[in-house]
Specification:
The complex is a heterodimer of chains A (295) and B (370). Chain A is mainly α. Chain A has 13 helices and two strands; from the N terminus they run αααααββαααααααα. In chain B, the strands form two sheets. Chain B has a six-stranded mixed β-sheet, sandwiched between helices. A five-stranded parallel β-sheet of chain B has the order 2-1-3-4-5, with helices on both faces. The chains are: A mainly alpha (295), B alpha/beta (370). Chains A and B meet through helix 1 and helix 12 of A and strand 7 and helix 7 of B.
Chain lengths: 295, 370
């Protein structure tokens, strides 16, 4: 029983990172209808920048993390507001933007690998964050607890923003009909800025977590993207709330599976289940009730 | 007609001259590369979690090359050139680099890491290139290795000593976590064999992805087994993550590993206190240790000594061979026939019929002054 509870808790912590990533990917797709692969670059930028600052300056770790967060958001905003619109103006759509996003991710991630090398790099986390919450047999660290809180808060903030603020309503209007939204004078550039800035936060936070926990590598952000995009598909394209819930569940399921299979099989089984679901339900679990409520 | 015949003769003479000139140039080139310089390759991980081992071996090998060249070269005729390539610990990358070294006429290549060395072994056999493994210990390195020479005992020998020590310490149940590479799997199977043969029990066993830095999921599952010792079949700096995460989840179990974890990053880690390790004791020769310490903050590890000995043994090979030109086959012939290599970095040594060095194995407890 203790083991099951512990696995659920640890899985929730891992799942919260997937949830943040899935939420950001789904939010961008819902608004602008393209797969933002370069999200992984935002995650890598946040983690690697924080590491470089902490490693090369005397600034406190918290300051290095804050700078990493800001730079991660800026990279995401630059890609979303400069790269994609420039391509769209030239008539690019769909696959071309997908490739450009992939190229941006690869270039940025490997730029950091060139600078710091391919080994995992890590910031020593503040002692407060590594403290254990709970009993001696069941518990999580403060850092893991923060990750869970961040994922829940980020989902609630997005929901509140979209349903209760002017900018949120404009985003939803643009989502429903981009041409009509432009006709009635909605500032598309501002919507892009808001969407990519907020999703930048969602992608950068896992980067900061990973650089303090197991260390960031070139492959880490790509793995998060793969899991995030799979959650987005299974939830149904555009269903950001369900995407976040599935992201969080993946972590829990991955850990619970440990009770019956060896650890190296858990993610493979989760992906196998995802593929089966998509085979029988190609549009994903796009629950209209969820969407209408969130709208 | 006469004019045509003269022209033909001139062309033939010119052609012959050019051909001879070409042959002469080739001969000169070959002669200089074979008699004056012997290229020693080193395929080592200089980035990634195994990088410290690659750097140790590289430093030792470079010291030996510098010494041999400063003393006039092998048999006072052949200088050595060391070409070090970073494999990042990736077998596929190492294979490509091995082919590059063979193309560059390198008959002697240093390697480390089990997966990488096992991938290189068939290429070494096929191309008659001597492969000296200065740091890997997979049991598979002791079979089908015509051109492979191992400078460390195989992992099975270390796990026999570790299992005996844990048994002597009063432990009866063990949990194992190992990485899913050749070395990690050999570690687990060797430990299980020796542990169970002493009537002890392995109560839980988990594998982790090679190269991962997150072992928490497996550790939490293993923890529920209530084992009184946790054996880590994990190499190098990755052991630090496993040790830290074991304590992070609140598990105060006795930890154990082999000399794989006998590195400062582990032995200086407070979380590793009480960890039982096997050791490969060696007394570095004072001249070697002094020379190394001039350029480094710490004394030479056994991996530095292995890199040094791997290159220095070429002096013995060259003396015994008496030839100025050494190729893979002639080096192998000498390595197989020399009964004892004299003291260089440490004590004298020899290779078994399996191409494995004969070396003693000890144990230590992290944090124990004795």
């Amino acid at each position: 029983m203790n083991l099951t509870l512990q696995l659920i808790l640890s899985g929730a912590a891992a799942g919260s990172l997937y949830a943040l990533f899935s939420l950001g990917l789904s939010f961008v797709y819902t608004t602008f209808k393209h797969f933002h692969i370069a999200a992984a670059a935002s995650m890598a930028t946040a983690g690697y920048t924080a590491y470089i600052i902490a490693d090369t300056t005397d600034l406190p770790v918290t300051m290095a993390l804050a700078i990493g967060l800001v730079v991660g958001i800026v990279i995401n905003v630059l890609i979303g507001t400069q790269l994609y619109p420039a391509l769209e103006k030239r008539g690019a759509e769909g696959f071309v933007i997908f490739l450009a996003s992939l190229g941006a991710m690869t270039a940025i991630v490997y730029l950091f690998v060139l600078i710091v090398g391919s080994s995992p790099v890590r910031i020593e986390q503040p002692a407060m964050l590594s403290q254990r919450l709970g009993t001696s047999s069941i518990g999580i660290t403060v850092l893991q607890g923060l990750a869970i809180i961040c994922a829940i808060a980020a989902t609630l903030i997005l929901r509140y923003t979209l349903t209760s603020t002017q900018v949120g309503k404009r985003i939803l209007a643009y989502t429903s009909s981009p041409n009509f939204a432009e006709l009635i004078g909605i500032n598309t550039n501002r919507l892009r800025l808001v969407t990519y800035a907020y999703s930048g936060v969602l992608f950068s936070l896992p980067g900061l977590y990973v650089v303090m926990d197991t260390g960031i590598t070139s492959l880490g952000p790509e793995n998060y993207f793969v899991i995030g995009i799979m959650c987005t598909f299974v939830a149904g394209l555009g269903n950001w709330l369900l995407s976040a819930i599935i992201g969080g569940s993946v972590g829990v399921i991955q850990y619970i599976l440990l009770l019956i299979v060896p650890a190296q099989w858990t993610l493979a089984i989760v992906f196998g289940v995802f593929l089966l679901l998509l085979t029988f339900k190609t549009e994903g679990f796009s629950l209209k009730a969820f969407r209408s409520r969130s709208a | 007609m006469k004019r045509t015949g003269k022209a033909t003769t001139l062309m033939a003479v010119a052609g012959l001259s050019i051909t001879m000139l070409g042959c002469s140039a080739d001969a000169t080139g070959d002669e200089s590369s074979n008699t004056d310089t012997l290229k020693v390759g080193a395929l080592l991980p200089l980035s990634g979690s195994a990088a410290p081992y690659g750097e140790y071996i590289r430093d030792g090998a470079q010291m030996a090359v510098d010494k041999i060249n400063a003393d006039g070269g092998l048999n006072d005729t052949t200088t050595l050139e060391l070409e070090v390539l970073d494999t990042e610990g990736m077998p596929d990358k190492a294979v490509t680099q091995m082919q590059q070294l063979i193309g560059d006429d390198s008959p002697y290549v240093l390697s480390t890491l089990s997966s990488q060395t096992l991938a290189l072994n068939p290429i070494a056999n096929q191309n008659e290139t001597v492969l000296v493994n200065a740091g890997a210990q997979s049991n598979a390195l002791g079979v089908d290795n015509d051109y492979l020479y191992n400078q460390l005992p195989l992992i099975d020998d270390e796990y026999e000593v570790l299992a005996d020590q844990l048994d002597e310490n009063g432990h009866t149940t063990a949990a194992i976590i190992n990485t899913n590479d050749d070395g990690g799997r050999d570690a687990a199977s060797s430990f299980i064999e020796h542990w169970e043969s002493a009537d002890n029990e392995v109560v839980a066993h988990e594998e982790a992805e090679h190269g991962t830095t997150d072992f928490r999921a497996q550790l939490q599952k293993l923890r529920s087994s209530d084992a009184d010792v946790l054996v880590l079949g994990i190499f190098g700096e990755d052991t630090v993550d496993a040790v830290d995460q074991t304590r992070e989840i609140g598990w105060e179990v006795t930890l154990a590993n082999t000399s794989w974890a006998n590195i400062p990053q582990v032995t200086n880690n407070p979380n590793a206190e009480g960890m039982v390790l096997t050791t490969l004791p060696y007394e570095p020769a004072s001249s070697f240790a002094d020379q190394y310490s001039q350029n480094h903050d710490a004394g030479p590890t056994i991996f530095v000594a292995n890199g040094y000995d791997a290159v220095m043994q070429l002096t013995t090979v060259a003396e015994h061979s008496g030839e100025n030109t050494l190729d893979g086959e002639s080096i192998k012939l000498q390595l197989d026939s020399i009964e004892e290599f004299p003291e260089q970095a440490s004590t004298s040594y020899n290779y078994s019929d399996l191409g494995v060095i004969n070396r003693p194995i000890g144990t230590m407890t992290v944090g124990d002054e004795e």
